[in-house]
Amino acid sequence: MVLWLLRALIVLLILRYIVAFFAPRRRPTQRGAPTRTPERTGGTLVRDPQCGTYVPQSNAILLKRAGETVFFCSATCKDTWARAQELKS
C-alpha cells in the first residue's frame, strides 16, 4: 500500500512539472496594462547633507545660503551643519 502511494505521488509530481512546462507563463501585470515603474507618491526625495538621510522635499527643512537651497531632515541637522559651515569660513 505504501509503495503504491509513493508511486502515485511520483507520477503526480511528474505530471505537474510537465503541465507547468507547457502551460503559458503568467505575467506579473494584468493583461493590457503597460509595464512601467510606479510613480512615487511622496514627491521628490532630497538628501540631508549632515546625516545623509533622504526625505521628501515637501517635508524637508530649508536653509537658503548664498543663493543655494539646502534641505535637512530635522532642525538639529540644520543647526549642526550651519555651525560647521561657520567654522569653515
Could you walk me through the main structural features you see in this protein, from its secondary elements to its overall organization?
The protein has a domain at 43-89: Ribosomal Protein L24e, Chain: T. The protein has helices spanning 2-22, 75-88, and strands at 45-47, 54-56, 61-65, 68-72. It has a two-stranded antiparallel sheet with strand order 1-2. A two-stranded antiparallel ribbon has the order 3-4. The protein is rod-shaped and about 85 Å long. The chain has 89 residues and is α+β, with helices and mostly antiparallel strands. It contains 2 helices and 4 strands. The model has no long low-confidence stretch (mean pLDDT 84).
